[in-house]
Amino acid sequence: MEGSDSALNHPYSPQNVKLPGFVPVFYSQATILGVYGLASILVVSLTWLISGRAPKKSKLDRWLMCWWAFTGLTHLILEGYFAFSPEFYKDKTACYLAEVWKEYSKGDSRYAFRDAGVVAVEGLTAVIEGPACLLAVYAIAKGKSYSYVLQLAISLGQLYGTAVYFITAFLEGDHFAASPLYYYEYYIAANASWIVIPTLISIRSWKRICAAVQAQGQKKNKTR
Fold first, then answer.
1. pTM given for the model
2. How is the chain split among helix, strand and coil, in percent rounded to 5?
3. Which of 16-20, 63-67, 129-133, 206-210 has the lowest average pLDDT?
4. Is the peptide bond before 14 cis (omega within 30 degrees of 0)?
5. What is the spatial distance between Cα 163 and Cα 106, in angstroms, rounded to a whole number?
6. 116-174 confidence digits (pLDDT tens)
7. Residues of 98-131 as b/e, b for ≥16 C-beta within 10 angstroms?
C-alpha cells in the first residue's frame, strides 16, 4: 500500500495516474524560468552579434537567424532530453533539464506520463527539426538558394507538430493541467510562439519562392 500511495504522490493531473519513483522538483519555478530566459537571451544576443558580420543582411534576416538558433537549440537540447530520458521524473540529481520537464508537466502531464503521441512528436522534432533549424541559420548567413524552401519546410513541420500536440490533447479531454494558471502559462503561452512565428515565416517564404519562380519564368520567356 505504501508503494501505491507513493506512486500517486505527484502534482500532476489526473491525480489517480500512478508515477512510481517520482521525485519532486528541486528548484523553484522562478529559478527554472529564469535560467531558461537568461539562456535564451544569451543565444539570441550572440546570434545577433555574429549575424552582424554577415555581409548585406537585413535586420529581418538577422532576427530570423536569432529565431532559428533559439528554436533549434530548444528542439535539440530540451526536447531531445525529454524524448530520450523516459524516467526524468525520477531524477534525484537536480539536473536542470529534468527539472524543466518536471515543472512543465504541471501544465501538460502527458510529458510525465510519457504519452506515446507526445514522445513521438517531440522525438521527431528534436532529431529532424533541431538540426534543420541550425542549418537555416547557416543558409541565411550564406545566402543559400535553398534558404526559403528550408525555412518553409521547417515552419510547416513546426505548425503540424503543434497542431497534433493541441488536437490530441483536445480529443483526450484536455484535462492534463494541474491548475488554470499552469494551463495558460505553460500549455498555451509557452507554445504560442511556435504557432505565430512559423505562420509568419511560412507566408514570407512562400511569397519569396513564388516571386523567384515567377522571375525565372520571365527570364526564360525573354530568351525565346
1. 0.91
2. 70, 0, 30
3. 16-20
4. yes
5. 20
6. 999 999 999 999 999 999 999 999 999 999 999 999 999 999 999 999 999 999 999 99
7. bbbbbbbbbbbbbbbbebeebbebbebbbbebbe
Q: Would the pLDDT of 2 be above 50? A: no
Residue 101 CA neighbour count, 13 Å, CB half: 29
Alpha carbon distance 65, 203 (integer Å): 17
**How far is 127 from 147, CA to CA, in rounded Å?**
20
Contacts of 119 (CB under 8 A, 6+ apart): 82, 83, 86
- DSSP tag of 224: -
Distances (CA, A) of 112 to 29, 41, 91, 223: 17, 27, 12, 62
Contact (Cβ atoms closer than 8 angstroms) between residue 22 and residue 49: no
pLDDT of residue 16: 86
pLDDT (tens digit per residue) in 75-89? 999 999 999 999 999
Q: Report long-range pairs for 205-212 (Cβ below 8 Å, ≥24 apart).
A: 205/148, 205/149, 205/151, 205/152, 205/155, 206/152, 208/148, 209/148, 209/149, 209/152, 212/148
